[in-house]
# Entry
Amino acid sequence: MIKTIYITCLLLAVLLGASSNSQAQLKRFSIGPYVEAGFPVGDLSDTHNTGIGAGLNADIKLIAGFGVTGSVGYMRFPGKKGVSISDGQGNTISTDYSALQAIPVRVGVKYKFPFPLLYVKVEGGVANRVGKDNNGAPVIFAPGIGIRFLGLDVEAKYEGWYKDGTAGFFGLKAGYNF
# Structure
């Protein structure tokens, strides 16, 4: 997990350094902080409440509206308390779920439409789980649509974490890129 974070930070630093000349000329690289909210769906909504997160996002513009994007952050979904579940023998018991915490590392492609502001993107990566219920790093798949005006970036997305089932949520992400 720590190795993945170091590699991602190193990659972002290399991209930042390599693009400093192009940034001055055509603003082909941007980086900035973001915050997001995650609204659980499916099985995740039975066990966890609305999550919040924050992180750092980077974009590199390529050609004809295409670009690459990447982010690293922290996401936390508080666990629900007193959830009634079946014990498999016809009895109902009450249980508490601990918070789901992760460090999602995502990379992907982005397409900005010819008309202003609107883009679509798809990202993949891993959600490095942290905390007492750390049971591995699920694979991430996250398609989204957003608008970007000047440096303000607002995106709506679905994000699925796949490992022994799916933990999915609809997300709303807002950031500012420099």
